[in-house]
Amino acid sequence: MNIFVVMKRTFDTEEKVEIKDGRVDEEGAEFVINPYDEYAIEEAIVLKEANDGEVTVVTVGDEEAEKELRTALAMGADKAVLLDTEDLDDEVDHYTISEMLAAYFKNQEFDIILGGNVAVDDGAGQVAPRLAELLDINQLTTITKLDIDGTKATVERDVEGDVEVVETELPLLVTCQQGLNEPRYPSLPGIMKAKKKPLETLDLDDLDLDEDELEAKTKTVDRFLPPEKQAGKKLDGEPAEQVEELIKLLRTEAKVI
Amino acid sequence: MSKNVLVLAESKDGELRNVSFEVIAAGKKIAGEGSVKALLVGENVASFSEQLIQQGADEVLVAEHSDLKTYTTDAYKQVLLQVIESESPDALLIPHTSSGKDLAPRLAAKLSSGLVSDVVDIEEVGEEVIFTRPIYSGKAFEKKSVSSGLVFATVRPNNIAALEVDSSRSGETKEVSVDLKDLRTVIKDIVKKTSGKVDLAEAKVIVAGGRGVKSADGFKPLEELADILGGAVGASRGACDAEYCDYSLQIGQTGKVVTPELYIAVGISGAIQHLAGMSNSKVIVAINKDEEAPIFDVADYGLVGDLFDILPILTEEFKKVKAGA
């Protein structure tokens, strides 16, 4: 079984975000594998263990992303591929990224592609469904359970809290939601092995792509921080007194009830 | 300056979702002299048409088919492509809901178009439509535009106010015939876990619990309070990891990002990743026994004490308020 994971290197969710010169300041920030992509990597490894096959992790980015790819290899993926954005303009968007991924996948044989439901930095969740469309394969997003039997896939999806049980055929792209699994930590032997596993870097030439075809379809005109929330009032007294005060404030000051 | 705007209305459990009216209002902001057409997709949805017109739609298109009863990617994509082809809208707005998130990027790829996801505000600057959207789950924001072609965005529920109902409005309702083929997903079952409950994304009031709630049972007083307020129950990652509740309730950078009018954080310390998911709520109330808890830094009103003492009293008092006392 040919299993692929598309993943992204993101800010650690415990990082504070600062804007400097209209950009998010990455200086000194901790980076991690996007938490939703960790579910995808875990599920891919579980699939491999059950069905025999190979797990390839793919990311679009620069050489900094090699660290996160190695982490995925240490978790148990077999191969890693970096689609290098070095030759591209500053502004890339979901169109650019999905076109690069599609160019890569058009030369691969795949049964299933897994990704995170959303990346915690940009939060758009566009790349995976775009990729499925470009490859003309079916997609199931926000999955919480995956069973594969031959070419048949039975999947549970989280649809705003309800569970949808669906069936479809491979090849398939899925995006992973919390609750699907518990991602493993890389083991020490896993980390040692990962150093020797193949990590391939492909640039635009390798993908037979031209910079002009990849120009972003959207542009960012500004980035800013929300007004800082001021700490409000701490109410005094016994529980009953605090509650009484709160109700009064919600009515007269906040006017929400 | 005028644009013909197409918006997708969405219904759930036999009712139009509020976000349907919000996308109409969003469409109005950019239509200028142009029109806002609302598209209804489903099995028996034509009856919603009048409501959409009263909420500002100039025309309603209805696509009905037994295969459209429940959202699937293939079926809805085909409908949208057929309607886009016949209507050639200048702008397309889709709710940023479970189905909208699944559908919009796929359409964008098919149309080779830009797409701005999860929009919380829209403004027109000269000829250009500028969208505001949160990044890093609301730790920051960005303003984006689509460079050329179709102006395409998904709109987050609960952020752009719907227009007032105007029952004097009238408009045409047009049936569109749809041709569906090669549907690859078969829906076997839908397990309703949210029946009768308010959806987190659209809730005006959220009562959220953290580790301080201590157990699944501990969530009961929160549910009671949420019921009284007509709100929804949410949770922190800590509470979900401890299996006090389902992951679908999780609020934070991993989980849902919410912007209700009133957010009551109960027994939640306020980790950065949780704050990212809720700190843009209009009014925040925190109940925690640790007065140093970071949640108090973002709370408008803080109650320091044992949540199990405070909640029952709070629920009783809200009951009185709701009864008009």
UniProtKB/TrEMBL annotation, chain A:
Residues 21-211 form the Electron transfer flavoprotein alpha/beta-subunit N-terminal domain. Its cofactor is AMP. The keyword Transport applies. Keywords: Electron transport, Transport. Signal peptide: none annotated. SMART domains: ETF. It comes from the Bacteria. Pfam families: ETF (PF01012). The keyword Electron transport applies. Heterodimer of an alpha and a beta subunit. Belongs to the ETF beta-subunit/FixA family. The electron transfer flavoprotein serves as a specific electron acceptor for other dehydrogenases. It transfers the electrons to the main respiratory chain via ETF-ubiquinone oxidoreductase (ETF dehydrogenase). This is Electron transfer flavoprotein subunit beta. It comes from Geomicrobium sediminis.
TrEMBL record, chain B:
PROSITE patterns: ETF_ALPHA. Belongs to the ETF alpha-subunit/FixB family. Residues 5-194 form the Electron transfer flavoprotein alpha/beta-subunit N-terminal domain. It holds the Pfam family ETF. Gene3D superfamilies: HUPs, TPP-binding domain. The keyword Nucleotide-binding does not apply. It comes from the Bacteria. CDD domains: ETF_alpha. Keywords: Electron transport, FAD, Flavoprotein, Transport. This is Electron transfer flavoprotein alpha subunit. It comes from Geomicrobium sediminis.
